[in-house]
Amino acid sequence: MSPKITTELLKQLRQVMKSPKYVQEPVQAYIVPSGDAHQSEYIAPCDCRRAFISGFDGSAGTAIVTEQHAAMWTDGRYFLQAAHQMDNNWTLMKMGLKDTPTQEDWLVSVLPEGSKVGVDPFIIPADQWKRMSKALRSAGHDLVPVKENLIDTIWTDCPQRPCKPLITLDPSYTGVSWRDKIVALRSKMAERKVLWFVVTALDEVAWLFNLRGSDVEYNPVFFAYAVIGMNTIRLFIDGDRMMDPAVREHLQLDSTLEPEFKIQVMPYGSILSELQAVGAGLSPKEKVWLSDKASYALTEAIPKAYRYLTPYTPICIAKAVKNASETEGMRRAHVPKGTVTEIIAADKAEEFRSQQKDFVELSFATISSTGPNGAIIHYKPVPETNRTLSVNEIYLLDSGAQYKDGTTDVTRTMHFGIPSAYEKECFTYVLKGHIAVSAAIFPNGTKGHLLDSFARSALWDCGLDYLHGTGHGVGSFLNVHEGPCGISYKTFADEPLEAGMIVSDEPGYYEDGSFGVRIENVVLVIPAETKYNFKNRGSLTFEPLTLVPIQTKMIDVNLLTQKECNWVNDYHQKCREVIGAELERQGRHEALRWLIQETEPLIRVQ
Amino acid sequence: MSPKITTELLKQLRQVMKSPKYVQEPVQAYIVPSGDAHQSEYIAPCDCRRAFISGFDGSAGTAIVTEQHAAMWTDGRYFLQAAHQMDNNWTLMKMGLKDTPTQEDWLVSVLPEGSKVGVDPFIIPADQWKRMSKALRSAGHDLVPVKENLIDTIWTDCPQRPCKPLITLDPSYTGVSWRDKIVALRSKMAERKVLWFVVTALDEVAWLFNLRGSDVEYNPVFFAYAVIGMNTIRLFIDGDRMMDPAVREHLQLDSTLEPEFKIQVMPYGSILSELQAVGAGLSPKEKVWLSDKASYALTEAIPKAYRYLTPYTPICIAKAVKNASETEGMRRAHVPKGTVTEIIAADKAEEFRSQQKDFVELSFATISSTGPNGAIIHYKPVPETNRTLSVNEIYLLDSGAQYKDGTTDVTRTMHFGIPSAYEKECFTYVLKGHIAVSAAIFPNGTKGHLLDSFARSALWDCGLDYLHGTGHGVGSFLNVHEGPCGISYKTFADEPLEAGMIVSDEPGYYEDGSFGVRIENVVLVIPAETKYNFKNRGSLTFEPLTLVPIQTKMIDVNLLTQKECNWVNDYHQKCREVIGAELERQGRHEALRWLIQETEPLIRVQ
What is the model's pTM? Predict the structure, then answer.
């Protein structure tokens, strides 16, 4: 992985930052956030502006370029990767470390008095705009919206915005029709006394209409907005996708419908002007509901007095709690349907997955890493870094797929030779943490961040830790990372856990320059049986949906308690039963033999 | 505990809410917060306005009175107590439960259009004002400052504001002189480029000047403000306390000093006008540093552009990390120096404490509760509720004292007969939680909220929980509750833990109408030895400063792991050694025999 040389690009960017063609007044700094206009985590190639200007292509990071400096903020998952991908023009700002300045503090420390800081108002979320703008103003600077994206002006070979065909999902997959979802949404709107709801997140649009797309790699979404009124539905979407008879039928575009379910299809680019028209026509007390993560541009379209902003939309909450059809689908999706280099191994994993029923695409770029590459938390093998798997190094495979019935995400860490005592020790602490979360019992409504330390306790006892959260929400044939719940030491974006939510459980340990360990299952929040049931508040625990053996060769059994040992044996028994039956049905005898061997019970010497 | 009858008082309050003598325009609602003008948790009798109007005298709660309603918000520690103390005029709003409205939402739901909501601007913290004001404004109402406190106008026998003599502490207790504290503060001010710092919290004034008082029961503080400039020190304090030769000597009021250490003494009541004068004299870029918890009145005295507000002041942070003299003092303070009813038992505990060297006063009202009273988390025995201790009920004693060398706070739960299996089961889960926190190892800089679930895990496994945080910061001969650190499921007011900080570790379990269990030690954050030391980030753990036997009769040994069993035995061994030696020295042979008996090692049947 050699760094991208950015000297010339930065020179061009600094020129357009002063060019009257693009900015009313010169801007002394320009912010390039990670996201797209929908605040997506994974983005289309045309939106990878931060990667284009810096070379760093991790999923999270913000670049700021001033006349003198170029700086990149990213978190612990990406410290190594960003350092490898960026050249000396860039300063890496390691978020979460004590001495790292915030973007605001840094800007204040480097900017000349009375500076202007530019940003694309479609890319920056309204809540970030507000915080940044306030901090800059109090130091005598100004945050200004720059209508034309300045990266796009210098990005001569920027790819086209994708516009791929749609997939329709009937209620056997989704459990609920789009009409019923609209009805439920309108009742939430009535409760909050709002007249309009603006759907800005791509997975929320997809979920609401029971449609899927492939505009963004791994995430089965499509570029669209929706504006839902009490009697109107407007869908902003481009291309001839609405000409597809299956889509027209699904959305009942040609049927005689009650007017409140008639969908008006409008061009994607007309959202701002349409929303401004909605905003201009409001009477006092008529409110418009937006996520506070919606772009500054769309938020500004509604006059302040008419805005109703919440951190979580009703769609986000409804989507997180899976119904019976979705849960069943997730269960099905986790049963197989499914001398080597990292890339070959990753390709093989994809090949196996793609043979399974209802396979659509991968749910994220497969992380197939061996030895020191395993310590790069979000590593993706490319020809320059591709290492050969060997009997001397730990191999980490983090992969998942989108099936029509669900989304999977699983990590296993393996050794094909004889692991060292230290490697086994670290693996076993990570396993103890994985079990501590998976087997945890907690009261209904507990927030995920309260479970995060359970995953770390065994590592902490020996002075080890990992610089990422323990789990994320998982969509149902939707984004593999979704809100509003998760398990992290970070306490934002953390709605209480309830039965039906699905999250990942993935503690790890990373030894820079040496190896990485991660053990990840997707788990479903389910009711638990407890002796006293929290005075009828209700008890919750997790059920692993992922059923893949955990390599027993890597476990130092003496570090496990009897309870932990039983957990591993019970889990492996379930893998044998469920996956074994399916392998038998598919006639995969070699795989079945491997499964039996890998799920032999552990025996702990007392 | 019979409720206070408030019908007549509420009628009077509703009259003054409309009286032009006190309000420019009638207010439709009046907020009565808990605190005083310094946002103290414990307050002087003259500031107990919320208790006066409602009867509920717990440490936390906010009353709101409208023309039709009277409502009280308080948290899980006080649900039972508040319900007992308030009459039917009041609605109890149980904070933390899902269906309880916030104060703002409730006001919006009950107020007629365009209402005015009044509050004393000296009592409401600026951050609360801001949040409340914004929420009300967006619903068409107004939050207005009412200069004269309306409760005071109807409180005919309101006690005088206390003005007790001061105690001076020399550096053998404090480790650092007040002059050096001023120097350190000014260097923090220079770092943040502020010219003035306003000290509003009573414990911060006391800490800064190495003075203690007794204006507020249990908290060794005195009513005062301070305003520190780069070359000036102003102390706002009433009474003839500054005439005391010891105080004059301590503060060097009569010495020839460098002008920047010369303390100007001013009347307590002149703070607002003095601060307004400071505010009026500022040039651009000259900033004044205040806590964002300072009162709205004082915050407003400084024009917005000149304010520098932070959630934690530099004094709060410096005070939390105890130096060697303070830590040693806290250790000393925890070694003794010190057929029955709850009240007699509480009095006896105070008597014993008061015989010890350096005793000043209790650090909070002793909680001495037996049987069902134990389930009232912040119970204080009064004649109407006083129960006789018996051999049939669990007894809970939560007590502490202020010594010149430190502050103590300890809870033990005991049975004088034969506890039931269920009582032992609950006690043992609480003990497991106590040990899990006390023995936890974690990386340097971990926030306390990440340890909270360790205290609950054993309870959760059986479907039990407790509705309070696990620990609070403890001052050094200062408030027994202090910021900025703690161990709670709540994540606000939670600065990272570092060596030298002192917190309590006090999980519990409360069975309404039956019994309460709590096991509390004060613990010091100390460096830990770990195998891998978090890549030199450093490891922390806790050392118990409290050394009081935990009643082994209440422990179901079979529910403990061997590690937990060893922890109890090691702890009891230390109690024997340290406390035993002191009892021997003091010639308290009966107490020594009791100690030996209570610290017999547990034996776990394998």
Answer: 0.85
